[in-house]
Amino acid sequence: MLPPGARYCGPVRVATWNVNSVRQRVPRLLPWLDERQPDVVCLQEIKLTGEAFGDLLGADLADRGYQFTAHGQSQWNGVAILSRSGLDDIRAGLPDEPGFPDAEARAVSATCGGVRVHSVYVPNGRVPDSDHYRYKLDWLAALRAAVATGPQAVLVCGDMNIAPADADVFDPAAYIGQTHVTPPERAALAELQAAGLHDVMRDRWPDSRVFTYWDYRAGMFHQDLGMRIDLVLASTPVASRVRAAWVDRKARKGTAPSDHAPVIVDLDEAPDGDIGPVVPPPSAPRTSRGTAKLPQSRQ
């Protein structure tokens, strides 16, 4: 049975957000749902079991017309899908999913209004050429294999922990020797996209400065020193419906935010208009390359 207000029509507004602990983010998540009115939301790093997620948010989500599925584990990882467009054929994890050493709660998928939606939290990789880095590449290969099986209408949404290109970090030189930007990671992401997926944000805003993640430390957010690692990848039938794609930077401001901002994609219609790649735009002046370092970098 659908909760009040739910509907089985296809999604119009789709969002993905790494909330970095849903328990800590409840005071921000529920008002954000009320303000932005997304039809489908993919969450990452919920850091709760599925049962605990339901206990925490089930009644509030039902009141707002959302069905939900959560694939989680206590303290770490965890993904969820909230939907007002139906929630069918739910699958936790990936076929032949690698573990570290056991399978982690990093992927959940469901069909929402005729679109197969994957909420994913790709492993970090930690250090290039480490065991966790190789696990990351293997995990991405398993995701690609799952997406390649179809159906044709697909969305892969989440924290990819990869900046697709140098334009997606504030300064490529600052990331030398770090994960998220290495050629094997970017090649693995490109292989995933080769399964027929479009990076809708970059396709819509090819030359814009767009970030979705800013480290909590060293004033990185206020200086707009970030990375674009949260992506919405859409198959051609879905990508052709995109009318707006933007980062909700407002959700990264204020008290107790996640270190990620939501990415919002509007299909078929744009309720707020085609309002630009980042809303609101950063107020800080653009920092010249070579003038800032990552907080963890050696001085």
Strand content: 15-25%
**First-to-last CA distance:** 58 Å
pLDDT averaged over residues? 94
- Derived from helix and strand composition plus strand pairing, the structural class reads alpha+beta
CATH topology: Deoxyribonuclease I, Chain A
CATH superfamily: Endonuclease/exonuclease/phosphatase
H/E topology pattern? EHEHEEEEEHEHEHEHEEE
Q: Please provide the count of β strands.
A: 13
Q: What's the Cα radius of gyration? A: 18 Å
Biggest sheet strand order reads 3-4-2-1-12-11-13
Give a short account of the largest sheet: 7 strands, mixed
CATH architecture descriptor: 4-Layer Sandwich
DSSP summary: helix tally:
6
Q: Could you say which overall geometry the principal axes of the C-alpha atoms support?
A: globular
| Poorly predicted ranges | none
Assigned CATH class: Alpha Beta
Number of domains: 1
Please give the share of residues in helix. Answer: 10-25%
Characterization of this structure:
The structure is a single chain. The protein is of the alpha+beta class and 299 residues long. It has helices at residues 22-36, 50-63, 131-148, 183-193, 200-204, 236-239, and strands at 13-18, 40-44, 67-71, 79-83, 88-92, 107-112, 115-121, 154-159, 197-199, 230-235, 242-248, 263-267, 278-279. α1 runs parallel beside α2 (50-63) and α3 (131-148) packs parallel to α4. The longest helix is centred in the middle third of the chain and has 18 residues, at 131-148. The record marks 161 as: Transition state stabilizer.
